[in-house]
Amino acid sequence: MTDHRYFTTLAVALRQAGCAQPALVIDLDRLDANIDRVKAGLVPGRPIRIVDKSLPILPLIGHLMQRLGTTRIMSFHLPIAQAVLEAFADADILFGKPMPAAGLRQALSVWTEAQRADFCRRAVLLVDSAERLAAYAGIAAELGLSLRFAAEIDVGMHRGGFSSPAALAEALQSVDGQPHIRCVGVMGYEAHLPKIPGFAGGPSGEQAKVTARFAAFVEALPADCRTILNTGGSNTALGYGAETSANEFSMGSGFLVPTDFEGGALAALSPAVFIATPVLKIVDARLPGPDILTRIMQWLGKLPRRGCFTYGGKWMARPVFPTDLRENALWGSSSNQQFFGLSDDNPLKADDFVFLRPTQSEAVLQQFGPVLLYRDGKIIDRWQPLPTG
Fold first, then answer.
1. Which one, of 240, 275, 268, lies nearest residue 254 by Cα?
2. What confidence tens digit (pLDDT) does each residue in 254-286 have?
3. What's the CA gap between 293 and 206, in Å, rounded?
4. Is the pLDDT of residue 1 over 90?
C-alpha cells in the first residue's frame, strides 16, 4: 500500500491527464483482481448481489455485473433503483432497507405505467414488520399493482426486522391469498459477525448461530417463497461454506477495499480506490497566537515542524502517501485547505499530489464529480457518479 513507485506513477498519470484538483481514482487493474479473488472465494453456485449504494456509478455497476456474471443488485434509494432499472434491462433489484410507505406511494404514483410495470416485475421491496407489510399491501391494492417483497429477518444484529420465525409466519399468513402482494424470500444482514468478542463466542461461534437462525427463518417460509435467500456483506460473504441456507450474498465496498473493509476475509484484496489532491502550500508549521505556543506544542510532540496545506480536505479518508503525511489534531480538518504534518526531510513541494484512502466507498464516490479510471499506468476514462438525491 505504501509503495513509492505505485503512487509516483499514479501522480504522473494524473498530471498527464490534466488533473489539478481533488479527484477520486479507481484502479481498474486492482479492482478486476479483487473481483476475481471474490469469485474464487465464494461458495459455488451462490452469486453476488451488488450493493449499489457503495458503488453508485452506473458504468462501475455494469463492469461488476459483467465480470461477476450476475444481474442481481441490492438498492437502498428509490431514485437510484430506478436509474439502475433503466440502465440495465436484465437487472433485478432487492431493496436492502425498507422504504417509507409514503415515499413508495409517491414514486409509484408519478412513474409512468411502463415504469410501474417494470418495477413490479424486477424489484423486490424489503419488509421489516407486519405494519409495513400491511401498508405496502394497501398501496398495491390502491394502485392496482402486484408488488413483491422479501422479509428482513434479525439473525443477531438487532437492527430491526422480524425477530423470530413465528413472527414472520404470522405476518405472511396475514397476506396469504392477497393478489396484490407476495413474498419471494428473506434478507438477513449480519455485519456484526467480525466484531463479536472472544468471551461471547467470537466471530466463528456467532457465525454458527447466525447460520442456524437464518435456516430457521427459511424453514418458516412456504416453498414458493424461497426465491431470494440473501445474507452477507463485504466483511462476511466470503466466510460462508456450503452449509448455509442462503442462495446469494451481498457485497459492495469490499471490491474497492476502503480502510473500513480491509483485513479479515478481505485480506487478500488490494485497495483500489484513492483520493488524490494537490498540495497548495509547504509551510513551517505555526499555530495562531504567540510563538511560544508553537514551540511548546512542538516540544510536546503535538505539532510537527513542517507541513502542507492541501486543496480541499475533511473527507472520510486517511492519508496514505507520502507515508509521513499526518493529520494534526491542533489544526483539525478543513474542507477548504487541510493541514497535514510532514517529516523535516520530506521533499514534497507545491502542486505535488498527496493520496488518501477513503474509509468507505458509500457517499465518498459521489463527492468528486467524474471518477478517474486508472489502468496500466494511465488515466483511461472518467465515470460520472449518480446524484445523491
1. 268
2. 999 999 999 888 999 999 999 999 999 999 999
3. 51
4. no
Q: In angstroms, rounded to a whole number, what is the distance separating the alpha carbons of residues 109 and 104?
A: 8
Q: Residues of the chain with pLDDT > 90: what percent?
A: 97
Residue type, 304: P
Helices 165-174 and 202-219, axial angle in degrees (round to 10): 30
- On whether the CB atoms of residues 283 and 307 are closer than 8 A, the answer is yes
CATH of 4-12+14-21+271-383, one of 2.40.160.20, 3.40.1260.10, 3.40.80.10, 2.40.37.20: 2.40.37.20
Mean pLDDT across the chain: 96
Q: What is the pLDDT of residue 23?
A: 98
Amino acid in position 41: G
Report the amino acid identity of residue 205.
Answer: G
Dihedral sign of CA atoms 288, 292, 298, 304 in order: positive
Neighbours of 135 (CB within 10 A): 18
Is pLDDT at 172 greater than 50 in this prediction? yes
pLDDT per position as a tens digit, 299-348: 999 999 999 999 999 999 999 999 999 999 999 999 999 999 999 999 99
> What is the structure's pLDDT at 388?
82
Residue that is written with C-alpha cell 468507505 in the block: 360
Residue in the block written with cell 487541510: 338
Tell me what the mean pLDDT of segment 242-249 comes to.
95
Angstrom distance (rounded) from CA 25 to CA 10:
9
Q: What angle do CA 217, 223, 226 make, to 5 degrees?
A: 60
Residue range 29-255, CATH number? 3.20.20.10
Domain ranges (residues) in the chain: 4-12+14-21+271-383, 29-255
